[in-house]
Amino acid sequence: MKSECPSSPPGAWLSQPESQQSPLPQYEPRHNNWQSQGGYGELSWFMNSSPDQNFNQVRKFGRLSTRCLLYLQDELSEMELRLDTMDKSYHGSLTRRRDTHPHRKALVALIQEKLQTYNNLVIQRAEMQKLKPANSSQSRHYELWVNEMKPLIKEELDSLRHEDDRIVLGGPDRDWLYKKIERFYWPIFTSERERKIAPDYPFILYSSETRLRRATRSLVLLGTLAFILGPILALSYIENKNGRLGIVCGSISGFGLLVTIMTKTRTFEIAAAIAAYAAVVTVFLGAT
Fold this sequence. Notes:
Organism: Triangularia setosa
Strand order of the largest sheet: 1-2
Helix content: 55-70%
Largest sheet: 2 strands, antiparallel
InterPro entries: DUF6594
Region (Disordered): 1-33
Pfam family, one: DUF6594
Distance between the termini: 103 Å
Keywords: Membrane, Transmembrane, Transmembrane helix
Mean pLDDT: 77
Structural class: mainly alpha
């Protein structure tokens, strides 16, 4: 039975006067709503729910990209060999304007097209390699949410479970100390903004990048002060020459280890920091 209602052409709703248009449904945030809608809408909402983009993880398809590059590389190698064979077989002019061999011109045009595809893929692959993989904490929370909520069918969920192939789109630049602190699930690392999201998924930790960064800097500051004030106080009370030299050598070595492990500093900056610290300790040693 055919419908009595005439079909409207695409875009007819937009051409109607505003007074005749039916109102759009009102969007309501999902906070505190445990009725999961499922599907890619729910998954994309979760992936973008973290303020520091911890859960915005996608696959880079590294193996497939490499395989495509290898295929294109071999195709270009075959074309290169065919072109060399043509150059040896036909002794006419090898310039473009005087080349009378149509197949050679067609092959060069095909090589140009294939080479452009290959170069673009190489550049894209190099840019993709710069993106950081998901660390263990990020992957754990991502997998926990996927296994708990199951927003997709099994085959689609299986395509997401490739921890070694996932990269994070954004997020803070994490050094060693930041990653260690991030593992502690302390309420002090959660701000009011994250607490508004947390009731939707109480089994997921939403941490504040700002608070974690402040905690990291505070620990680095305390460690630096300890390595500066500690040796100075120790040298003030120790008069034994061997003991004083041991304190100086130990403090310089410890400070270098602290800077190397706890910060993402370049090599020459590490050397400059250690040299400056050694100068301070040595000056105080000579003064006492």
